[in-house]
Amino acid sequence: xxxxxxxxxxxxxKIDSPFVVASSGLTATVDRIKNLESYGAxxxxxxxxxxxxxxxxxxxxxxxxxxxxxxxxxxYYDYEIRHNRINSYIQLISEAKKAVKIPVIASINCTSAxxxxxFAKTIESADADAIELNLFMLPDDINQTAEYxxxxxxxxxxxxxxxVSIPVGVKIGHYFTNMGATIQKMAELSDGVTLFNxxxxxxxxxxxxxxxxxxxxxxxxxYHESLRWIGLxxxxxxxxxxxxxxxxxxxxxxxxxxSGASAVQIASAIYxxxxxxxxxxxxxxxxWMNEHNHESxxxxxxxxASNRATxxxxxxxxxxxxxxxxxxxxxx
Length: 332
Ligand SMILES: Cc1cc2nc3c(=O)[nH]c(=O)nc-3n(C[C@H](O)[C@H](O)[C@H](O)COP(=O)(O)O)c2cc1C
Description:
By secondary structure, the chain is of the alpha/beta class. The protein has a single domain, classed as Alpha-Beta Barrel (TIM Barrel). The chain is built from twelve helices and 13 strands. The chain has helices at residues 30-38, 51-64, 71-99, 113-125, 146-163, 179-189, 224-233, 250-259, 268-273, 276-291, 311-315, 324-327, and strands at 8-10, 13-15, 19-21, 43-45, 49-50, 104-110, 130-135, 168-172, 193-195, 202-205, 210-213, 241-244, 263-266. Strand 3 (19-21), helix 1 (30-38) and strand 4 form a beta-alpha-beta unit. Helix 5 (146-163) packs parallel to helix 6 (179-189), helix 7 packs parallel to helix 8 (250-259) and helix 8 packs across helix 10. The longest helix has 29 residues, at 71-99. Bound molecules: flavin mononucleotide (FMN).
């Protein structure tokens, strides 16, 4: 087999292959990160530190009455809890950086600009290779406009970007009114955009008639929206888009690269198949590139991004033509 160049980038950080481990419990300890590197992960995105998490700790101590009632205690615990959380995250970054050669990308889940600006600087000083902003707010406030949510996110990205000199990537969900323009704007403001984050999903148990959490892990058919939007937008975003959600085999990873992703982030498939998934994916990608005469990932990435010939598939949303048997009610 010929030697293949499968190197690429995520958020302007160079990586040896497109297979990046997504932010999750898989990347929450140094031992797990070392193990992922040994199986060929090209970079890891650390488990996020959540604004919500810090606030939860805070309210639990408050409820327990441990902190008393005075404002002085309030301030003390606020400082103390935040400090501990932040310190252990910083420690994770610097220990991971010492333990592995692959890029270590920190992840912060933010909903407000203020809280995270100083934190982003601390992350930079802990030697992280980049920061991923996990941006999400459920847009269920009927008194807010669509612009309120997108402007708030743009403000967070611009503030963090102007605060640090390491690359800043953004991971978003698909609850935006004007998806194309939002992706393009996010890409302009940052070093790359991951499409899409997957959240915990609601479900209902009809036996007990209770609400429950839906599946924590993604399914193998969940990649199509990432494929659509990467296909439609990669060439309008300086090829700075990264794929996430539903990548359960090498074939899907290759599809996303062909649509224009510069790298793919994986969590559920590694939870299900172990880190061996990564080494297998790397070998299968090289084998496929050999069979298809690609010597470098450069000729793979974006080969099937939306253009005159392919836009029909990326843009199609309605069941108009070509579905005769379904429209006749015949398909089973
Ligand atoms: C158990 C678990 C924990 C996760 N924790 C985080 C997190 O802390 N921050 C984040 O941005 N995404 C988190 N995610 C989302 C993943 O990074 C990823 O975007 C999502 O699972 C879709 O990719 P997949 O289909 O490969 O799982 C988590 C996912 C799982 C399954």
